[in-house]
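Subject: Sanity check before I submit

Could someone independently write out the structure tokens for this chain? I want to compare against mine line by line before I put it in a report. The sequence has 248 residues.
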Amino acid sequence: MSEVWNMWHGCHKLSQGCRFCPVFQKDYLYGRNPSVVFKTKSFDLPVQQTRSHTHRLNPDDHLVRTCTTSDFFIEEADPWRDDAWDMIRQRPDLTFLIVTKRPERISSCLPRDFGEGWNNVAISCSCETQYLADRRLRYFIPLPIRHKLISVEPMLGPIHLKQYFEQYPTAIEGISCGGEIGSSARICDYGWVLDLMLECTAYNIPFRFTQPGSRFRKGQKVYCIDDDRQKSLAEKSGACYRAEKICG
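---
Independent answer below. Compare away.
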């Protein structure tokens, strides 16, 4: 099982996919302002040790989902990010998966010794619509990142990435996509998922369908799907291609 490292918390809504952000909804429920960005008590988790002098952060699959309640490249975290990079540098035994909606900030936020990318860092650019894919990927794909991924979650419309696969045939290690979760979730259409999977298959890009979302359209029918069935239904759909190659 992977583990989570949230070194800071809080974010600002940027685009359509942020509209029903579950982190915002949870913060509102507990009377917190989700737009206030602050360091958490888990800031130094990667270097914390147990009484037996082993690392507390030691997932079975070596995967650490990083900064899931904020954005690693958010502006307010600029004073803290160098320390976060230093802790990542100290844990080459782990893989830190970072998902961001701010690819235009990545270049100025990388450590000086990042070179062509660190082997223990995978960065995924989140693109929920075609417009956002075209806007964000032009910044993201040319960056010196060793493990680049694209996350189409929540998938809010048809997305075509063929042009990027052709222009950068070896840049992207995998694509994941999934529907939106929650009582206000927007529809995810199975046709959109299959079209994106077929593009990935044609260019030998690993693809994973992670979840259908709370409102899932297949053909002419819209299904309402409970949270506890999301993963199993995605797996049963067969909408995957070389998915075991995708980090996360």
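---
OP: Matches mine. For the report I'm noting this point. Helices lie at 22-29, 78-89, 106-109, 130-140, 162-167, 190-202, 230-237.
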